[in-house]
Amino acid sequence: MTERFVTRGFVGRRQAPDAGQRIPPGQYLTNDFPVLSAGPTPHTPLAEWTFSIAGLVAQPISWTWDEFLALPAREFVVDISCVTKWTKLNTRWQGVSVDTLLEHVSLDRQAAFAVAWSDGGYTTNLPIADLLNGQAFVAYLYDGEPLAPAHGGPARLVVPHLYFWKSAKWVRGLRLLEHDEPGFWESFGYHNRGDPWKEERYSGD
Amino acid sequence: MATIEWRLATVAQIREETPRVRTFVLDLPDWAGHLPGQHVDVRLTAEDGYQAQRSYSIASEPHSDAPRSAQIELGVERVEDGEVSPFMHDVLMAGDRLEVRGPIGGYFVWDGMAPDPVLLVAGGSGIVPLMAMVRHRSATGTRAPVTLVYSSRTRDDVIYHDELAGLAAHADGPRVIHTLTRSQPPGWTGFDRRIDRQMLEGALDGTAVSTQAFVCGPTPLVESVAEALVGLGFAPGRVRTERFGPSGG
User: Fold this and answer.
1) All domains of chain B, ordered by start, with CATH?
2) What's the ipTM?
3) DSSP string, chain A
4) What is the residue range of A93's domain?
5) Do residues B232 and B200 make contact, with C-beta atoms less than 8 angstroms apart?
6) CB within 8 Å of A109: residues ≥ 6 apart
């Protein structure tokens, strides 16, 4: 019904085609790095920080901060899109690919989903398939600098092909499950998967 | 779950609240209602099909008299280099139509059912979703004590000033504490600095443990207020935040 609706007088601001092709529908380009989170920023001392993989694995594993920094890392340059409508191109991170992390565990055959959990109680759910093949990493540097607490430091999950709420700030671990378990925003009406190119913003999209 | 459908809203009225903020009153047929704190997505479509979307908070309280309220109010700050808010301020007129969908958001909401005290902390246009909570409290007569700490740059930038003053004047109305950070008119008796721990401690009056806080504003304000509240004894889960960054518009 509303497909052909035109807003009187609206012209809008289009991007150059090369940038425009990289901006998912309903998003706009920003050069800032907006901050969004549902509560206070946690400040876990690095001496107490660990990253763990647990759940459907033969042997759970946990790294301290120093051990995590010693894991093979690489640079990722990715475009990110937040469900609140902003898209930022060419963000530069340093971190450890989830593929590399999963090489250290033996996954049960039934493991199909992951819950990323964070300091402060935040969670988000993903199919394991969305974390593999270089699609996801745990980042601790942004633009060459330690990741700021407001942006998820000391470390955050980054899953750039999904809306940015899937990129859990202050991430501390992955729990691998047989079943899908909605995380924080997924339980408050946001889409279970969150593909920006399909505009999967809210439940039912 | 059912899709949140786009629907056509008609602009019923536009009110200037401050030099930079306007209220857009929208007629929404078949609106299923909302909770204070929620927002809507607005979508604009140009002749050639180009579209832009933004999220705007709902300032109006849910209407209790009808299950399907027909009007909502959005508070929109003009972002000078923005794409959507200048259009809404300069071009949009009463009678125009907009595509809207919502309500959206289920965490930064207050339904007024719990008797616990509520602390609202606003910076600038961050007052908008909190105003829905203040109005809801007034409309429903709920007894939960509500304190609003509201930071604006100047007296002219205070959104909903007179309405807040009217509500605060009632014996069981909300407490409203203003601070003006950039300049203060002669005779100003409120605060004149950024919201800090000491100001919040005074506003809480010893009720931190049982209080639910909602903080909305620009990121530096939200970060510092949320941290101060945790320092004053709030469990992090009782500090709910929402932000308006400088970008967007």
Assistant:
1) 7-104 (2.40.30.10), 118-243 (3.40.50.80)
2) 0.91
3) --TT---TT----PPPHHHHTTS-TT-EE-SS-----SSPPP---GGG-EEEEEESBSS-EEEEHHHHHHS--EEEEEEEE-TTSEEEEEEEEEEEEHHHHHTTS-B-TT--EEEEEETTS-EEEEEGGGTTTTT-EEEEEETTEEPPGGGTTT-EEE-TTS-GGGS-TTEEEEEEESS----TGGGGTB-SS--GGGT--BTT-
4) 66-198
5) yes
6) none
Nearest to B158 by CA among B21, B2, B6: B21
Of A6, A39, A86, the CB nearest to B241: A39
SS (H, E, C) A12-51: CCCCCHHHHCCCCCCCEECCCCCCCCCCCCCCCCHHHCEE
Q: Cα(A66)–Cα(B179) distance, rounded to whole angstroms? A: 45
Q: For helices B127-140 and B161-168, what crossing angle results, to 10°?
A: 40
B224–chain A Cβ distance below 8 A for any pair? no
d(CA A178, CA A155): 26
Q: What does the pLDDT look like over B128-155, one tens digit per residue?
A: 999 999 999 999 988 899 999 999 999 9
Interface contact flag, B45 A6, Cβ < 8 Å: yes
Kindly give the interhelix angle for B197-204 and B219-231, rounded to the nearest 10 degrees. 60
> Which chain A residues have a beta carbon less than 8 Å from that of B240?
38-39
Whether residue A131 is contained in a domain is answered as yes
- Domain presence at residue A57: no
Q: What is the CATH number of the domain that holds A166?
A: 3.90.420.10
Q: How far is A21 from B142, CA to CA, in rounded Å?
A: 50
Question: Is B236 close to A121, i.e. CB distance below 8 A?
Answer: yes
% of chain A with per-residue pLDDT over 90: 91
Query: How far is A130 from A161, CA to CA, in rounded Å?
Result: 9
Under an 8 A CB cutoff, do B91 and A10 touch? Answer: yes
The structural domain count of chain A equals 1
Spell out which residues of chain B touch residue A184, defining contact as CB-CB under 8 Å. 107
pTM: 0.94
